[in-house]
Every structure is written in C-alpha cells, then in structure tokens.
Specification:
The protein is built from 15 helices and 15 strands. It is α+β, with helices and mostly antiparallel strands and 445 residues long. The protein is globular, with a radius of gyration of 22 Å. The structure holds 3-hydroxy-3-methylglutaryl-coenzyme A. The site of 3-hydroxy-3-methylglutaryl-coenzyme A has 29 residues, from α2, α6, α7 and β11.
Length: 445
Amino acid sequence: MTVVGIDAMEIWTGKLKLDLAETFAPAQGDDPGKYTKGLGLRASSFPDVYEDIVTMGANAAHRLMERKGLTPEDIGRIDVATESAFDNSKPVSTYIAGCLEQVYDENFHHANKGERKFACISGTQSLDDAYNWIRAGRNRGRAALVIATDTALYARDDPGEATQGAGAVAMLVDEDPNLVELSAEQGYGSADETDFLKPNQQFPSVDGKRSVNVYLARMREALEDFAAVAGDIHPGDYEMIPFHTPFPGMVRKAAALGYRHIVRGTDVGDLLAEEIGHQPMRSDFETDDEFHAAIKEYTDALTETERYQDWYANTIEPTLEISRDVGNWYTGSVHIARASGLKHARENGLDLDDARLLVASYGSGAQAEVHAETVVSGWEEEIGALDIDEQIRNRYDLSFAEYEQVHDVHNHETETDVEEFTAPENEFAFDGWGRMGERKYRYVE
Ligand code: HMG
C-alpha cells in the first residue's frame, strides 16, 4: 500500500502581537488570569497592514518549496483551507499560485486548485483530499500543497476577541513522507449546529458557551466512530494527541472527556476506579441534570489524579505550546498543535520514530474528525527546520491603541490608513487593488 502523509511543513505567523495579560486585560478591566490561566493564552498574532491570508499562505508555501528544493513542476495540486476568504468565486489558491509564479520561472497551470470551507476543520479535510488524490494514483508523481490560512478576527468586544490569531501553515503531502504517515481510518461526529457562523459577514456570530459544548459533543462522537473502525483505544497507544485548539482551555476540557472515554474497560480504568470510583452511568440517574452533576464531580476528581496529570503533561501539554503565543488560527490550529508536540519532542530528546499520534480536528457548524498518524524517521530534521520561535519573538508588540487601529485596518467595513509597523523583507506583501476589485501582491526583496 502506498504510504502517504505530510512530508514537510512551514508555519508563518502574522507579524504583530497583542499581549493578553499586559495589554488586553488592563484595557478590558479584566484580571489577566482569565486569559493566561482560564483560556491558557499569553498572546495573539495579528497581520501587519500589508499581510493577509494570501501573503501569509504564499510566504509559508514559498519557504516550504525553497527548503525542499521544489519548483512548480513538482506540485500537482494546491488546496487552500480558510474561513477568512474575501471572494465567493475566485479561490485563494489562485492568488497564492499567482504570488509564487512571481518568484519561479515555471508556472502552476497544470495544478488543480481549490478552496475548502468547513470552519476550522477544512485544513484537515484538505489533507484528506490530497491523501485521497495520491492514494487514487491521480497525482502523476507530483505532490500536493495544502495551505491552511486565516485571520481569525472577532468583532470588537465579542467574548471571542481574546482568542483571536492570524497565521498560515503550509504542508507538503506526498508518498513516502518525512514527517507523518496518515492512517486510512477516520472517525466523524457531524451535526447541523448554529454555534459559530459567518452568514455573508466577516466577523463570526458566536454562541461561545454553546460552542464549547458542541465541540465536546461532536468530539465524543468522532472518538466513538474512530474506535468503531480502528478498534478500542488505550491511553498508552498514542504518544501525543493534538487537538483543534481555539484556546488551550478548550483542550483542557476535551482531553478530560477523551480520557474518560478511552480508559473505559481498560486496566487504567480499573486502577482509576480503585482510586476515585467508577465513572457515572446515565442509567444510574433519574435526570440528566443529576447525571451531568455526577460527571462533573467525577471529572474534577479524575483531573486531580497523578495518573491523569502525568498523561496530560506528556500527551497534551506539549501540543499547546505554540498556540499559547499565537491564539486561534482556525484551519491551521490543529496543525500547529501537531508541530508544537513534535517540536517539544525534538527539543527534549524524545525518540518518536514510529510513535503514533491521534489527531483530533474540529470545525464549528459542526464536525469533529479523529484519525491516527505515525511519526516517520526524518521528522526531527523537518521539525528542526521550523523557525517559529524566532518569528514569535520578532513580532511587533502592539499597544492597545495600535491594536484598535490594526483591527480596523483588517475590518472589511472600515477604511483606515495606518502605517505598517514592520518592514516586509523577502516576502509577499499586499499591493493594493486591481481594476476588478481583485487584490494585488508583490514580492518585496
Ligand atoms: P468568556 O465567557 O469571556 O470567558 O469567554 P469565561 O468567563 O467563561 O472564562 C473563561 C475561563 O477562564 C473559565 O474557565 C473561567 O473560569 C476562567 P472554565 O470555567 O471554562 O474552565 N477564568 C479565570 N481563571 C483564572 N483566573 C481568573 C479567571 N477568570 C475567568 N481571574 C468563551 C469564553 C469560550 C465563550 C469565549 O472565549 C468565546 O466566545 N470564544 C470563541 C468561541 C470559541 O473559541 N469556542 C470554542 C469551541 S468552538 C471552536 O473551537 C471552533 C472555532 O475555532 C471556530 C471554527 O471552527 O471555525 C472557534
């Protein structure tokens, strides 16, 4: 069977930073602990004046192609996943291909291009499309470029404002990959939900509290569906579990739910039962409220156990490190979580050759998807090539007044003329509007 997976990846963060504890919390009159401890975020990334989903995606893809020594001839497919698109017809992938053609002698006329939309989960769906295309033997020896790019902005004073972020992840999907092999088995949890949506509007309408519960409900279904096809899951089966991370506090809840689910019927479940009792069963309670109260009490006890805390520290915590500094990148978020876990492993000398990851993606509206990946040899070199720490360090630290201006600059409803905060160098930059309202870009040396 052809082994297909992610061969290489690059990450591009927006060049600006909003410090949540130092800058956002005081302006909102909030305790910084709400953001740093409650949501688990230190900062958000924002695009500078000349950045947008196209520049960030093209810059990540360009760097990936340069590092891997690729030319357009090597790429047979460009899929962009985004929920921040500015055109209902012309896909972002055509803009990105246009950018890349400015810096390569060849073009991408042979490449199939598209744009995937399903909130945050479309990044993973684009990976699936690339995987299926290669496994079907339609790729003629070429690789697929999958780009997840978003400016995850909320309306000012929306509760989601603290979880904003902006950045892109470019992934090369190919045969005999150097990073991770994707599994054929997948589990889904999908339902028509109205928790987070953008009905022809730029900023989302969000029912924040409900969105948390919808995430958990769909994730539980996806886990069950995955177990139905791949077999029961034991907590020791997976070295790390990268989740979609709108903010790390969400993953704290999802991990506890997932662990409760996967320990059932295992030796770990038996040991936990001796310590904190058996998991509550719905049949033991007369009402849903009583059952939910018992589940909450059990989960609180579970997350206090040393066994759970060790598992969380090794399996989940490493996947949250990058997210804490950049916020929600929507379609790129779960792919940052994978990169973060692998980066942690490399920096701590962990041997992950042949290790298994369980990747838990999610998109509002709503769908969760769970699949497994196997880390393949070559991963350390690939992950070692990322310079995300340097990018995070080099961001311009916005004052609150500057943040307000930047938010206006990227708000499609407002016209604001603001000087750029950083200078573009060796990258694509927004260069104004064309005669049909299209966006124009140039490569800045
Ligand atoms: P909120 O209501 O302002 O915050 O917004 P809160 O009052 O619920 O506080 C947040 C947490 O901080 C709570 O922890 C507080 O207890 C704690 P929890 O009880 O939940 O564990 N807290 C503190 N902790 C320490 N010290 C303090 C302190 N104060 C409070 N001083 C909300 C929260 C999630 C509603 C908001 O951020 C929001 O609307 N976010 C946007 C929606 C979202 O991200 N939903 C997540 C699931 S849906 C999803 O992931 C999909 C998405 O990525 C979109 C897509 O798919 O396209 C969003």
